[in-house]
Specification:
By secondary structure, the chain is α/β, with parallel strands linked by helices. It has two domains: 216 residues, Aminopeptidase; 64 residues, OB fold (Dihydrolipoamide Acetyltransferase, E2P), CATH 2.40.50. It has nine helices and 14 strands. Strand 11 and strand 12 form a beta hairpin. Helix 1 packs across helix 8. The chain is globular and about 60 Å long.
Length: 295
Amino acid sequence: MERIIDRYTSGLEGPLVFVTAAVHGNEPSGVEALQEVFKQLRAAKASIKGTLIGLRGNRCALKKAVRFIDEDLNRTWKESKIAKQIKDTHEELEMEEIIEILDMEMAHHRGKKMYFLDCHTTSSQSAPYMSVQVKNDNDEWAHRFPTYIVRGFSDIVNGSIDHYFTDRGLTGFTFEAGQHDDPSSAKHHQSMIWLMLKEACNLDLTTIATYPKCVESLQNDAPDQKTFEIIHRHEIMPDDDFKMKPGFDNFQKISTGELLAHNNGSELKSTWDAYIFMPLYQGQGNDGFFVIQEV
């Protein structure tokens, strides 16, 4: 399984668009979406300014259809781990390879605008949304696309890949396309990639054979754009026995006093009139849930 899914350019000067998928191995829809986008670009011999490159994130975990092997690759991008001469975990090695490719692409595109998109899905049912670190021009860029925007994840959770990309000077966001097994997730990912190519690389979408269907899932089906901020994170400690109350959807309203989860036999109740965000319904992960409010 190759690291680079594909790359596409029509030889015109322009930005780098660096797309990562399957940073979590149980989230394959971004890979499927990239494969279809590259297929359609080549079939149309589409003209774009700049270069699109798509990468698989956690290749070994993707083969095994698990979130990670030794540690969460989306918590690995810390200065201490990047600086280590000898990598101790599988995910540190995966990270090192991605950095090597990014370094080469950034050197090749020096002086050009550079964008990133990190493709993810959720364990609970969810409307599609963008997770944005409010730094540089990320937030302004995200507001050019449809659907929800959530600010603050990378400021609360240490070691995320989008935080690293932003620190390197790329503009972009993480896009959560829906639930892991929902067939619409790959469609949402594909729509976002097409819309990003339109905005960043001046792609004429009417030249693509699958247009307008290829962007309908976001242009027509996404919720009206709203912006949220994270106000609470429940972190799961290594010895915790955490169980989320069944039935929560992402962005579901919660009320003060409402039971959210059990942790080590104790009830966790809401102290907010707000929204639940990323409730954990899978075996791996150290984020039990977040609470967000609309801004």
